[in-house]
Design goal:
With 136 residues, the chain is of the alpha+beta class. 26% of the residues lie in helices and 10% in strands. The chain has a two-stranded parallel sheet with strand order 1-2. The chain is elongated, with a radius of gyration of 25 Å. The model has no long low-confidence stretch (mean pLDDT 82).
Length: 136
Amino acid sequence: IAEEVRMELSRLGLKSLDDLIGRADLLKQRDNIISKTSGLDLSSSLLTVELPMHPPPELPKRHIQMDQFSDDEILNDTELLQAIENGTSVERTYDIVNTDRAVLGRVAGAIAKKWGDNGFPGEIKLNLKGSGGQSS
């Protein structure tokens, strides 16, 4: 996808996606209108307004500490690793916060690597207390 985006940006004479901001002149309404959109008038959204050319403001860089909770904490648990290896059961509880965005991805990968499509015969119960998500 990234390569296609770069090619399309190049075709439009642009260097980055930031260069697209405010470029309504690059939009047009489709000619092949279907019945459910026939009453839709996008002309006001497609208007271009002459504005003084100023470089876009430099937005402050947000530095968010990602994944404060790491799968390493789980994958360093000897009993849990033995459960994955032997197909047995284990239960653990961990605290997470909303910046923990990719919790358990590597744990699932470790299980899949060992057991593949055969299915994991044991049970790994990981209780996560808190909120994992996309906000900061």
